Amino acid sequence: MTTAADVLPSRLGLTPGTRAALVVLLTGALCLALEPVLPWLVKWPDAWTLPATQWVDTVTRWILGWLKPLARAFADLMRYPMDWANLALNATPWPVTIGLITALGWYLGGLRMAALGFLGLSFVLASGYWSESMNTLALVAVSVPLALIVGGAIGLLANEFPRLKPPVQAVLDVMQTVPTFAYLTPLLVLFGFGPVVGLIASAIYAAPPMARNVILGLERVESEIKEAAVMSGAGRLQQLFQVEVPSAASQIMVGVNQCLMAALSMVIIAAVIGGFNDIGWEVLLTMRKAQFGQSLLAGLVIVVFAVVIDRMSGALAIERRRHDPRVVYGVLALAAVLTALFWSRLPDPAEFTLLAPVAEAVDTGLGEFTAANGDWLAGVKNGAMFYVLLPLRIGLDQAVLPFTWGFAWTPGMSWAVFAAGAALCLILIWRGRVTAGLMVLIGAGMLETGIADLPWPFVLVGAAALGRIAGGWRLSLLAVGLMLTILLSGLWDRAMLSLYLSGVSVVACAVVGGFFGLWSAVSPMAWRIVQPICDMLQTIPLFVFLIPVLMFFQIGEFSAFLAICAYAVVPMIRYTRHGLVSTPPELMEAAIASGATGWQIMRDVRAPYAAPTILLGLNQTILYAFAMLVIAALIGTTGLGQSIYLALGKADVGLGISAGAAMAILAFLADRMVQGFAEERRRALGL
Amino acid sequence: MTGTTPPAIACQHVWQVFGPNARKALDAALQRTGGDARAAAAQLREQGLIPAVQDATFEVGKGELFVIMGLSGSGKSTIIRCISQLLDATAGEIALDGENIVGASKQRLTQLRREKMGMVFQHFGLFPHMTVAENVAYPLRVQGVAKARRRERAQEVISLVGLEGREDAFPRELSGGQRQRVGIARSLAVNPDIWFLDEPFSALDPLIRRQLQDEFLKIQANLKKSIVFITHDIAEALKLADRIAIMRDGRIVQIGTPADIVLRPADDYVREFSRDVAKGAHARVRSVMRPVSDLPPGPDDPGLRPDMTLDEALAHCMELYQPVPVHDDSGAVIGAVNPVDLAAALQVESE
Ligand SMILES: Nc1ncnc2c1ncn2[C@@H]1O[C@H](COP(=O)(O)OP(=O)(O)OP(=O)(O)O)[C@@H](O)[C@H]1O
Ligand SMILES: [Mg+2]
Fold it and tell me: Which residues fall in a coiled-coil region (chain B) (predicted)?
């Protein structure tokens, strides 16, 4: 096979891309042809897998056993600040809390922020979830300082000792790809059930963005500013804290903002382990009871917090001007006076049920809506399931059934698909686009087989080929090595299921997001509508996406698919638009001067120029999709996400870590490959 | 520069090579070439290293205004970064007032920077989060000077550079010219003896530049510091310098007075620099004067002085062809000039 694949094409003078496609195609064809004789070529036999999950379990339990006393002591220690924060937030009369947030809003961003703070917290109060919200806030209030200190310290150390920088960056990169639920299982074993797990998990999850931004910010301080500090005779600590850190303040504040948002998101995710009466738990509970009105209300409370925290901490990063402190004192005094005056008559926040009728109305409205439009909704869902998702997952040969499609699949039809693919391939080759032709043929094969049922040698060779083209031999070897680990560990089937669902979602996001990005690029009006939606979607914690899809489509893969798409589409839109609108004006002018029409400019100038940026957007979309895939396990997905979630329920460390690692491997490889392609495009454009 | 007091700055065979294992590579290259700097630099380049400063040797006397000139990338900034020890020189010796500072301890360097050195940066290097007054007072703040004293001294230097009234502005609120004045004020806050200025005026438009140059000369006339001033503008160099060093690709190709540079360029590179300068306005009579014993003056006496520019001198002896005497301030004849030489000196470039 090597002779056929390597010697022949190189003699034909084919590009590496074509050669790689040819090798992949031949591997696939060979697997399909040999399937009847050698079934192990398609499905890796269970007998060949290693009990990796158990090994991981044994090793980690052993390590965790060692760490446990320390961890428990730490947990006991952390209980104090948590209790204090809890007490402080719950004991503070609500008018004072609202006053404080409003005053803070004023100080940071003037009237608009003050109004945002006031209205946001009033909504929380009216929702009746005040004390649950305060419990959540208490967790955030303790975990964020922890994350800021740890992340900041890591950033400073990496800056002080340049040798540390590459390993620290590598660890931060890997941490970005490890799915959120996967942290929780070992922490659960380590710290025992309870809110401390949520606290630690959110601190771990929120520290990396801080560290990243500190490193980036300090790196970006102009060298002359640093030198000016040296020449002023400052000692190292004076240089660092009096000059470099303040000069990097905006970037560091971006880190603080991201840290806050990550902490909030994780605190809410950590609610799945329960044991703490917080707002995330409320969402879960009501979701399980199918009280979608309540669930939506609780979800909106989370969104309100996310928006308030995001906008206020964002103001820290952008605005230097602070607003008149006299207004701050005024607002605080007003709140205090009100509290004192109505002290005896101050209603318990839990008694507020202003919005309960709304929740009920939503419930009944939803009931009526689904009753009236049930057929239509089911039609959408089943159509997508039977005609798109299922065929992609298990292949046309198994998905086409008389029951759904109205006829049964025959081998003849398989041949027809292959023949159509081959015909298209030949046409493309004849028109000089050899690689595209081969890709069509590969696509036809994949459609017939189904992504979840792809023969493992085909996947391995495919990963190797992609790695080779995107990043050279090292990436290629790395890809094969990492994929082999998954294969040997017995998680292959689940990994393929995850790959399928995330792959489908990413393609959908690429198409939809690409379209909206393009539209926003050509029409500023459209962007004015799309931008706030994107901002909103990006602020909403992962968890909340599940509520609306559940309301309309119940538990199942289609709901998961929708939730993933809703979350992961944003970077694709943003980057596409950004790439397209940032074409240098000289290039556009040159094209216009050559007499190109608007669409010709788009196709020949703007799109190629934007390609690296769009690829980076795709990369973000992939990472987002993987992150959401795990969360979506809550509403019914198969694959690694489900394993991670189940492992959490059973405190099965081995499965949790292995499945988490497998997920991280997929995300990591996807990340590296797309980055590689983006880099290659950038080089080709001489950027 | 008498024999007893050491020069303010003395550099001997200073090298700055960028790249991995620079020190070892430089030693090896010097060994192979038997100490030939040019050949060694060429070898280093071949190995992919950057010899940004090669074998620089010069002295700056006390109170002297020493200008370093060269094209972009010729190593000017690097050389003052070596002297101020912002960069650790790869090889060579650097002494300030006779004290060797290569390998000096961190504390000693900090002390030197607090007491002796001031630096103005090419791109200003102002602290964005501090006001003008805080920027200027920062060198005092790190020494723990009390706030009131700091403010007072900052006020002094701020008025010296003519920025009164803008003390509480932030750098982003200032124009380029004002920013550079802040940089200058900051570098003067501790009243240093040695003053480094890295292209302080090149980011400014020509009018402001001329104005700042004049103010700078005025300040220097009062303060009499030892100065290393970097520029890539020959007119600026000729206007300000006591002596000029010309750098090319890391090498110092010529050191001399403005007149030397204009009238006796060491090579085509230097000649190229002074091509567009009106030489007559920079070179002095002294540079073409010869002893009376060589050149007995004729009967005409247009009253030449040694510090007249060639243009002025030529204007005085337009009609003369015989050698003429040159008088010092007391009126005594100290030499003679041939009007033909005057004209020839101005023609150097066209040959
Ligand atoms: N930290 C560094 N690492 C590697 N190379 C450097 C470094 N600093 C300077 N160089 C190189 O050394 C050479 C001299 O740079 P330098 O900044 O001294 O030039 P310059 O004469 O000040 O130029 P300009 O007029 O543009 O300021 C350049 O080729 C530059 O690329
Ligand atoms: Mg420079």
Answer: none
